[in-house]
Amino acid sequence: MAPARARPGDAVLVSVLDTATPPSGTLADRPLRFWPAGPGRWLAVTPLPTETPPGPAAVALLADALPLAPALEVVPANFLSTRLDVPPRFIEPPASARKRMALDQAAIKKAYDRPFGPPLVAGPFAVPLDVEPSGGYGDQRVYNGKVTGVHYGLDLPSPAGTPVGAGGDGEVVLARDCYMSGKTVLIWHGAGVFSASFHLSAMEVKGGDLVKRGQVIGRVGSTGRSTGPHLHWGVKVDGLWVDPRSIARLDLASGALSGPLEAPERPGPPDPVVPPPPSAPPPPAADGAAAPPR
Fold it and tell me: Do the beta carbons of residue 238 and residue 26 sit within 8 Å?
């Protein structure tokens, strides 16, 4: 299990060795999907849901019909809160925008429809911009004084026009100007992993392009629902958004940790606003076209 300690919202890598048949199991009640990573070796990457309670995680594995019990400690997430003012049309989109938003959602849903298989990446992921985030994963978003959702990515502030690189090798499955997320690039990395770059001022790739880690895919901008030039970078694993920094410490190609064992620190000071309860449904941002701004 890598890492041995993780926060809700993190991606976790599960490795099973010396087994002749594909293993099976669950982590935090979510099925694990394994791919072959060498003779007798299988890997799976899975998200820890944001509502996962602190303490030992519920892990159940079977390998060659034998039960395994790897340990994973879940530590408190300490999600924060961010207050933002945005134009009213992004809080209550006008009727003229609803058709466009529906088309955005359909295109994004199609982009995520990819077969499961081994990762396309040849090494660790990289955060596209080496800057201090202005907004973190799990932040509760308070728009114009009203709680409206959760921020499922990193906001990386940078001057408009700054080149944005791919976080890892993969295939571009969407390059589209969306109403909420602005100019948007989605990359499929295999193994159920996708990365998303929102609010770009320019897109320098198109659907179907194969890209390498660090290859320029667009430029920082402030398109869509945004309060200023920045990159919103998100990573989705097996259908759930995860803290992007947690995927950057995992090497899906080798199954090794490429970063520290400790979960990454959240940016920004604590805020007294309470996060939404575990039963709350995901906000529209989870599908990309309604991405939160910084």
Answer: no
CA 14, chain centre distance (Å)? 18
Amino acid identity of residue 18, one-letter, is D
Q: Which residue has the tokens 């879940």?
A: 74
- According to DSSP, the β-strands at 73-74 and 5-6 are parallel
The number of CA neighbours under 13 Å toward the Cβ of 146 is 7
Ordered DSSP codes for 132-168: --SB-TTPEEEETTEEEEE--SEEEE--TT-EEE-SS
What does the block give as tokens for 158? 């940078």
Closest by Cα among 210, 217, 214 to 188: 210
Q: What is the pLDDT along the chain (294 residues), one digit of tens a residue?
A: 889 999 999 999 999 999 989 999 999 999 999 999 999 999 999 999 988 999 999 899 999 989 988 889 999 988 776 666 666 666 677 888 899 999 999 999 999 999 999 999 988 999 999 999 988 888 876 665 555 677 899 999 999 999 999 999 999 999 999 999 999 999 999 999 999 999 999 999 999 999 999 999 999 999 998 889 999 999 999 999 999 999 999 999 888 876 654 444 444 333 333 333 333 333 334 344 434 334
Give 185's strand partners.
175, 197
